[in-house]
Amino acid sequence: MFDRRSFLLGSSAALALAPVAALGRIRLAQARETVVRGAGAQIEIVDDVYGVPHIRAASIPDAFFGQGYVVARDRLFQLDLSHRRELGRLAEAFGPGFAKHDATARLFHYRGDLGAELRDVPDDVLACARAYVAGINARIDEVAADRSLLPLEYKILDVTPLRWDLQDLVIPRGASIDNADDEVRRAQLAALGLLDLDAIIAPLRPAWEMKVPEGLDVAAVSVADLGMLQLGSLPFSAETPVADPAAGPAERANAGSNAWTVAPSRTATGRPILANDPHLGIGGFGPRHVAHLSAPGLDVIGGGSPGLPGIMQGHTDRFAFGRTNFHIDQLDLFVLELDPEDPERYRHDGGWKRFRRVEVAIPVRGGSLQSVTLRYSEQGPVVSYNPARRRATAIASIAMQPGACGSFAMIAINLAKDWKSLRKSAFRLHPSPTNFHYADMDGNTGWQVIGYAPVRKKGDGLLPVPGDGRYDWTGMRDFEALPNEYNPSKGWFASANQNNLPADWPRNRIPAFSFRDPYRYERIVDVLSHQERHSLADSVALHHDTLSTPARQLLALLPERPSLAAQPAVAMLRQWDARLDANSGAAVLFEILWRDLGRRMLAAIVPARAKHLVTEIAPSVLLGLFAKPDARLGVDPQAARDAMLDAALAAAWTSARELLGADPAAWRWDTLHQVRIQHPLSRIPAIAAAFPAIEGRGTGGDSYTVMARWLGSGPGWRVGGGASYLQVIDVGAWDNSLMLNLPGQSNDPRSPHYRDQYAPWIEGRMQPMLFSRGAVDGQAAGRTTLRPNSS
User: Fold this and answer.
1) Torsion angles phi and psi, residue 606, rounded to 5
2) Looking at residue 355, what DSSP letter applies?
3) Please, which pLDDT band fits residue 403 given cuts at 50, 70 and 90?
4) Which of 29, 254, 315, 666 has most Cβ atoms within 10 angstroms of its Cβ?
5) Is the peptide bond before 206 cis (omega within 30 degrees of 0)?
6) Strands in 457-507 per DSSP E
7) CA 588, 591, 593: angle at the middle one, nearest 5?
8) pTM for the structure as a whole
9) Closest CA to 465 of 375, 348, 354, 356
10) Mean of the per-residue pLDDT values for the chain?
C-alpha cells in the first residue's frame, strides 16, 4: 500500500557500498540552538529521558512546525523513503528496477483540482499542515548545511532527502490492493462452481448471500486483472519487515487494534480511562513517533504516523482519543470491455467512452527518462490494460474521490475542544474507516465510526463487476450515516475489529462484510464486564492479556482416549490454562498443533481444483468443524475428525521435540516467537553493518490474544506484527498516563533511543507519558531552541 502507513521494503544493492566505520553514540545535547526558516517565532523543544520531544511554541502552527522538525530529526530516512515511494520518485534515487513501482504510485495520484481540495480544508488546519511541512524542510536544510547530521543511510546509498511541499499531502492517494484480490478469488471460485468455499477463508460478517454480479464472466477473471497492483515488494527487499498491507496476507489479515473506554462510574480513579494499541507490522521502522505539541490554545501528546501531521492516538488537555480499524469496503474492481476498433475506448452507459490518458516521465538514476501512459476510466485508475483480449480493469477507490484526502484529519482532531466540535468539523476530514474512542475531563465518553462509504448503483462489492455503468458509484456517505454511542449506560465500550454494527442496522447500508473473528473483543468484554472499579493497572494488564479463546475451545475437544503417540501432547495440554505466555511450553505445542490442524483440514475439505485458491482457514471455521464435524469430512465425519486430531497431536509433539529439544520442561513459546527488528534495507551489507538488528528476546501472545503479536508470513515463528504502540490514559490526571513505543523514538543506532523501549515492550513495563510542564522539566534530557531566520 503506497501511503503514509507504509515504508520502503527494499532498495538497490547494485550501488557500490562501503561499510560504515565504527559508530559512536549520540547523546542529546543539554542545550543547543539552531536557526530555521519557516517558523513564526522561537520554539523550544524539551526532550525527556524517554526520547519524547515536548514542543513549546507561541502559536499553534509553530507547534506543528516543531512536530515536523522533530520527526525529521528522529526519522528522516523513514520519512524520505515513504515520501519517495508515494510520489513515485524511487527510480531517480535507486535505479531502473524501481520504475514500475513509481508508475503504480503515480497512477494513484489525485488528478482532480488540487486547489479545490485545499480550499475545502479549514484555514486553521491548512496553516498547521503548511507549518508541519516547513518543519520537515527546516531539518532537511539543517542536515544539508551540516552533513555530519545526516542519517547514516544517505552516505551509504549516495542519495539526498527530498524537500516537501504542501501539495505532497494531497497528491498521493495510496496504491493499495486492499480487497481487490479477494474479489478476484471469489470470481475464480464461482467459475469453478465453488463460491461457497470462500467462507472457509473469510466468513462474511454480517452474514450475507454472495451472488455473481449480472453480466460478469467469472471464467474470464484472473489474477492478471489485478495488473499493476501485483508488483508487491520492491527490488532487493528484505523479508516483509514493515507494516505494508500490500506486502503479504499475514499483515493484511491481522492489521487491527484494540481500544476500550471506561466511564468514571466504573473506574477506581473516578475519572475516565481510555486505552488503545494500534496493531501494525513489527520488524522494520517503528510505525509511531510520539510527540507533545503545546501552544496557546493547543496541548496534545501521543503517537503520530511519521509523515502525517498531528497525533493519531493520545490526549489533549481536555480529552483523550484512540482508534481501531472499522470495516468499510472502499474499493471495487471493474472489468471494462474495450472497443475492437479503438482500444482507447471502453463500453460505458450504452456507448463507447474514451480513457483519460496522462503521460508521465519517470526520472531514472543512471538512465534516461522512462515515459509511461496512465489511463483513467469513469470509475478510476486503470490497473490492467490488454487490447489483445479487449479487456481492461479499473479501480474505484474512496481515496481517489474529491474531498477524500485524509492528510488533514489528525490536525482537525487535535484542534477540537470537545465531542461537539469533533463531530462538527474534524470527522468530516477523516475518510478512512475508524472506530473513534473519546473520553473527556467532564466524564463523558463517546464512540463514533468515522470514514466514507461508497454509494453503489447496485451490487455489494464482494466480486468484480462490469464497468459498463450499471455498478458505478454515485456518491459517498460520511460519518453521519455510521453508528455512534455517547455515554453508554453500561459504563464502558470497546472495539477490536469485530462486527460492531447495531443489531438493527439497515441491510442496505452494511458498509463491509470483512469484520474479524471476535476473540479479542470477547476477551476484553469478559474482563471489563467483571470489573466494577477498573484501574490503570487493569488496563495495562489487559493490554498484555494472553488468554487464547481458540486455545480454550480446542482444549475442550481433546480426545479422551488418545493414541500412544498423542498421549504426551494431550497430557501437557490438559494441564494448560490456555494462556500464550512467553514461558509456556504448552503454548508452543498449541501453536504447532494449530498450524498443523489448519493444513490437515484444508487438505481434507478443499477439492483439488480449488486448493490453489483456498489456502487459509478462518479460526472460527476450523474450530466449528472440529466441534461439529460434517459431511465434508466424509461418510463418518466424527471418526475422521478424531483421527485427524489424534494424528496432529502426535505430529505436534514430535515437531516440538525437534524444534526445542527432548525435555518438555525446557520448552518456551518465546524461544520460537522472537521479536527481531531490522532496517528495511538490511539486505544491503553496508546498511546491515551500520544498523545492528534489535533482537534477542521473544514474547507471548498471537493473533487472537488481546496482547496481539501475530506470526509473520512464511513458515517461521517470528513475530510479524502487533501492538507496537500502547497507551493507557488517565483522563484529567494526565501525568498518570502510560505508553510504550517499540523499539524507540529514533531510527539512528547512535541514539540512546534507538532501542530503549525494546526490553520494556517485551516485559510489559509501560513508561510514563509525561505531560505537565513540571513533570517534563523534571525529566528533561536535552533542550533545543529553534530561532526563526529573520532574513
Assistant:
1) -100, 125
2) P
3) very high
4) 315
5) yes
6) 465-466, 473-477, 484-486, 492-495
7) 105
8) 0.93
9) 348
10) 93
Q: How many residues does the chain have?
A: 791
C-alpha span between 238 and 241 (Å, rounded): 6
Q: Which residues contact 510 (CB under 8 A, 6 or more apart)?
A: 206, 208, 460, 501
Cα(354)–Cα(342) distance, integer angstroms? 9
d(CA 715, CA 168): 39
The closest alpha carbon to 28, from 769, 791, 750, belongs to 750
Other C-beta atoms lying within 10 Å of the C-beta of residue 447 = 19
Q: Exposed, middle or buried, 167 (CB in 10 Å: 0-12/13-18/19+)?
A: middle
> Cα–Cα distances in Å, from 493 out to 328, 475, 486?
20, 31, 10
Residues 21 and 32: their CA atoms lie apart, in Å, by 26
Q: Of 658, 758, 165, 474, nearest to 767 (Cα)?
A: 758
Q: Check if the beta carbon of residue 684 is closer than 8 Å to that of residue 17.
A: yes
Q: Which CATH class is domain 180-238+330-400?
A: mainly beta
Mean pLDDT of 399-406: 95
45 CB-contact burial (10 Å; exposed 0-12 / middle 13-18 / buried 19+) = buried
Residue with cell 486448493: 611
Q: How crowded is residue 413: how many other Cβ atoms within 10 Å of its Cβ?
A: 28
Neighbours of 773 (CB within 10 A): 12
- If DSSP codes are grouped into helix, strand and coil, which group holds residue 176? coil
d(CA 418, CA 409): 15
* Strand 709-711 to 719-723 pairing: antiparallel
Grid cell listed for 289: 513517533
Q: Residue ranges of the alpha helices (H) in 628-763? A: 637-660, 669-672, 685-690, 758-763
Reference 312, options 655, 782, 724, 757; nearest CA is: 724
- Of the candidate CATH numbers 1.10.1400, 1.20.950, 2.60.120, 1.10.20, the domain formed by 549-580+585-667 belongs to 1.10.1400
pLDDT per residue as tens digits for the range 322-374: 999 999 999 999 999 999 999 999 999 999 999 999 999 999 999 999 999 99
Q: What is the largest CA-CA distance in the chain?
A: 86
Question: Strand ranges (DSSP E) for 326-433?
Answer: 331-337, 345-348, 351-354, 356-362, 370-376, 382-386, 391-397
The pLDDT assigned to 714 comes to 81
Residues 6+ apart with CB under 8 A from 778: none
Burial of residue 1 (number of CB atoms within 10 Å: 0-12, 13-18, 19+): buried
Over residues 557-576, the pLDDT tens digits come to 999 999 999 999 999 999 99
Can you state the angle between helices 536-543 and 519-529, rounded to 10 degrees? 160
- What SS3 state is found at 47? strand
- CATH 2.30.120.10 region(s) of the chain? 180-238+330-400
Annotate 473-484 with b (16+ C-beta within 10 A) or e (fewer): beebebbeebeb
Rounded to 10°, the helix 123-145/60-87 angle is 70
CA dihedral 537, 540, 544, 549 (to 10 degrees): 70
C-alpha cell recorded at residue 722: 502487533
Is there a contact between 339 and 463 (Cβ–Cβ < 8 Å)? no
pLDDT digits (tens, 9 = 90+) for 502-528: 999 999 999 999 999 999 999 999 999
